[in-house]
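A favour, since you know our structure tokens better than I do. Just paste the record in under my message, thanks.
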Amino acid sequence: MASTVNFTGAVDRDLLKRAKIIAAKTDTSVNALFNAELRHLVDTFEAAEASSNQNYRLLLDFSLGRLAGDAAMRALGIDSEEDLFLLMAQAHLPMPRLPDAVTRDMVDQLQSLAG
């Protein structure tokens, strides 16, 4: 059996609240959710690295917001966002979130169109 170790980390308050709700609804713990997701990320990354698949690293950088969508598409040799989204789904990686300021600007623009 694998040994465990405690560590201290920081997480967004709202994210933790939402994770607790999911944990309660699925009769598990936030710790179990965290471990499952981290294990999946590490296992997938290591498998991609072992097969010299650099696409996963690019997709992970895109998912973490370290690489813009257009740069990811160029590096992957694809020319459509649809293909990028399909690759993200196949890699089981979450789509990156826009920065809050960009999201607010988009909402403001949509509201100005409606008003």
User: Anything to note?
Assistant: The chain has a mean pLDDT of 88. The chain has one domain: 16-114. Residues 16-114 form one domain.
